[in-house]
Amino acid sequence: MKNNLCDARYGTIALLACLAFGPLFAAEPVPLVVPPDSAIPAGPEGEAVRLGRQLMIDTRAQLPRNVGNGLNCSNCHLGAGTQPGAGPFVGLTAVFPAYRTRDGQIDSLQERINDCFQRSMNGKALTWNSKEMNAMLMYMRWLSTGVPVGSAVVGRGMGAVDTSLTPDRARGSQLYAAKCASCHGAQGAGTPDGRGGFVFPPVWGPKSFNVGAGMARTYTAAAFIKGKMPLGQNNSLSEQEAIDVADFLTHQPRPAFAGAANDYVKGGRPKDARN
């Protein structure tokens, strides 16, 4: 369908507006396509892409000054950001900068990355022009190869569940014990790997994400759990079961985050926000 802003009858002003803002009027979502490793460029750019991927997979060990818990980026962004419904990075460079309701402002991709370091990793922001920040950006740009500016990718985010369903936290506790504790521990502390990291990550306690993280929200966590957990048993839980177990684990003790007090200051606060 032709965008009315680009209709010739609006003349030169409309043409300029179309040129300036056209990418913001997104087309249909495009397929999530992960480039093959053979498409990684040679030279410094390729080295940066590979470093960026390594930082996503081994974040805690590679960036100990910036990670304050036992997590890696790939614990939530499965497959180093390549899996649909698990926070894929594919296409992110096509949609950022973007307005985010939680911040109440336009965020750059650097700000979005640092938001994760401060919340999900319970740590400290990367320096904007650091080698590591640029490597992560290069990796995301490479994954976004071929995605038109302004287009969303199918499978972006963590998926969705019916937010009208009411959580049953007591039932969630029982489901956690039956479905999750064998990997994440009866007390949510994860399964250590013997090298200071974790085979399966902690989902609450001091080594997990803080209350400001998106995964600390019941319905966000529920969507991830529904689509990706238990590991190897995707979509084996009903939406209600996923919401119940998510409500239980998100409300267990975890690190505080002072910055959460400034979330949603311009409105739009979801009912499961933790601040």
Order of helices and strands: HHHHHEEHHHHEEHH
Structural class: mainly alpha
Mean pLDDT: 91
Poorly predicted regions:
1-25
Strand order of the largest sheet: 1-2
Helix share, percent: 25-40%
Strand content: under 5%
Measured between the Cα atoms of the first and last residue, the distance is 42 Å
The biggest beta sheet is recorded as: 2 strands, antiparallel
Briefly say what this structure is:
The chain is mainly α and 275 residues long. 36% of the residues lie in helices and 4% in strands.
Provide a descriptive summary of the structure in words:
- This protein has 275 residues and is mostly helical.
- The chain has eleven helices and four strands; from the N terminus they run H-H-H-H-H-E-E-H-H-H-H-E-E-H-H.
- It has a two-stranded antiparallel sheet with strand order 1-2.
- It is globular and about 55 Å long.
- The termini are far apart.
Task: Identify the notable features of this structure and list them briefly.
mainly alpha, disordered N terminus, 11 helices, 275 residues, globular, two-stranded antiparallel sheet, 4 strands
